[in-house]
Automatic annotation (TrEMBL):
Residues binding Mg(2+) 1: D10, E49, D71
Matches recorded under InterPro entries: RNase_H, RNaseH-like_sf, RNaseH_domain, RNaseH_sf, RNaseHI
Function: Endonuclease that specifically degrades the RNA of RNA-DNA hybrids.
Keyword terms, alphabetized: Cytoplasm, Endonuclease, Hydrolase, Magnesium, Metal-binding, Nuclease
Originating organism: Mycolicibacterium fluoranthenivorans
EC number in record: 3.1.26.4
Cofactor: record remark: Binds 1 Mg(2+) ion per subunit. May bind a second metal ion at a regulatory site, or after substrate binding.
GO CC term, one of those recorded: cytoplasm
Reactions it catalyzes: Endonucleolytic cleavage to 5'-phosphomonoester
Protein name as it appears in the record: Ribonuclease H
Length: 150
């Protein structure tokens, strides 16, 4: 478990809310896997940012050490700081409001539980090659979902 799978994820919508896409780049030693998908209807940036790590983690066939990079502070803070409190509070925020995207937070928790995941935030559009590739894949996923030629 010392040789991590490196995952970069991204998601987004145009407009937000609107059609969206997600992308993920998985690297382990010399192996690289690119993944993408999207929603042609009404979704949100946050839902797409959450979907990307879910799909990447669910694609792993055995428990592994994962270094997961996201440019979404919402995703990183949610999974590392907020989710246990939300769960403890019956999926309510500190303001006693229902947690948005609870279905995806629960699915992300389940996907993480199979692995040893270390989360990292990376600045978006700052020249990090695999983050840039994840962004391209997210755009491709959105275009494919909408039936638009890339």
């Amino acid at each position: 478990m010392t040789d991590p799978v490196i995952i970069h994820t991204d998601g987004g919508c145009r407009p937000n809310p609107g059609p969206g896409g997600w992308g993920a780049v998985l690297r382990h030693r010399e192996h690289v896997r690119e993944m993408c998908g999207g929603e042609p209807g009404e979704t949100s940036n946050n839902r797409m940012e959450l979907t990307a790590p879910i799909m990447a983690l669910e694609a792993l066939t055995r428990p592994v050490l994962v270094h997961l990079y996201t440019d979404s502070t919402y995703v990183r803070n949610g999974i590392t700081k907020w989710v246990l409190g939300w769960e403890r509070n019956g999926w309510l925020t500190a303001a006693k409001q229902p947690v948005k995207n609870v279905d995806l937070w629960q699915r992300l928790q389940a996907a993480c539980s199979r692995h040893e995941v270390e989360w990292f935030w990376v600045k978006g559009h700052a020249g990090v090659a695999d983050n840039e590739l994840a962004d391209v894949l997210a755009t491709r996923g959105m275009q494919e979902a909408m039936g638009v030629a890339g």
